[in-house]
Design a protein that fits this description.
Blueprint: H1 2-23, E1 48-52, E2 55-59, H2 64-70, H3 72-90
Antiparallel strand pairs: 1-2
Length: about 90
């Protein structure tokens, strides 16, 4: 009986966590390049996808994540500026 309670108390929080992660809708990454290297996404294989503060970020490789994490605000600003420029060009 005690074992069943321990197992149940362990599984309930995990199932709630998984549901929360699935419910979170990330803002898509719309650029065609890696914001760190400037390389076209897909040239080095599948892009590395990372979730950061409700945003999807795509890198050309996992190694770029280290540079992103040094100055994330700098790169988020660059992403937002590039997205705004691309949106303006479409108008």
């Amino acid at each position: 009986m005690i074992a069943a309670i321990l197992v149940a108390s362990f599984l309930v929080p995990l199932s709630g966590l998984a549901a929360d992660q699935k419910a979170e809708k990330l803002k898509p990454y719309t650029l065609k390049i890696c914001i760190i290297s400037g390389d076209k996404l897909g040239e080095m294989g599948d892009p590395f996808v990372y979730a950061y503060k409700g945003r999807e970020i795509k890198f050309c490789c996992k190694g770029c994540l280290k540079d992103f994490n040094k100055e994330p605000d700098k790169y988020i600003k660059k992403i937002e500026e590039a997205e705004a420029k691309a949106k303006k060009a479409k108008s």
